[in-house]
Amino acid sequence: MKISATIITFNEAENIREACETVAWADETVVVDSHSTDATREIARDGGARVFERDWPGFAAQKQFAADSARHEWIFSLDADERVTPELRASIEALRAGGEARLADGYRVARRSFYMGRWIRGGGWYPDYQLRLYNRAKGHWEGAYIHESVKMSAGARVETLRGDLLHFSVRDAAHHHRMIGERYAPLAARQMFEAGRRTSPLRIAVAAPSAFTRSFFLKGGFRDGLAGLAIARFAAHHTFLKHLMLWEMQKSRTVNRKP
Known about the structure:
This protein is α/β, with parallel strands linked by helices. The protein has two domains: 3-167, Spore Coat Polysaccharide Biosynthesis Protein SpsA, Chain A; 173-257, no CATH class. It is 43% helix and 23% strand.
């Protein structure tokens, strides 16, 4: 069982060295970079990765290109801001030692996020299972704008690995706010619009309080104290903003159709 670790990047000079180090156990590392203006590509090459430079086609398409460019059939997909724990590495090494006949077609991993100085347990942020180790003959990446994931072929067997994938995505509150306003809410609204979903003033009004309630109370965000409160509040903001942007798209389309 030979494994290619794949990472997509854009201006990840602060992260890419550690990302390459955390998958040094893989048989190769493939980095696909979308024209970074910092030293991402140079650092990745110094870390032993094969580096491709390519225009940005979207998350799913870029990750699929990385998988297609790999030398080996088994793919371990890592984001630049993620790290493999020793327990997760041990689980993967046990698979490699067990022989091909015992393998499933794909493996999902629990992802644990570090936020406001602590590891998050609630709010829907953990265990946040991600399918990251898979046989590329049995799976492919899909997702128009956000929430890209590996879609396995019909009948494929998926199991869960022991050990966490550590996630360091949000630096501080200001960064979290920018991520929602500049990336996640606009992309989510676009994805909803193109999928035929529509919203209304009433839905805009109730969506945010509902998102807060789910995150903080129903999904246990209160267990994380102030961090859980912040996560729930940002979840409400994201939900409100994406519905508001979807409403603007609807209105713009209606206006443009008028004679």
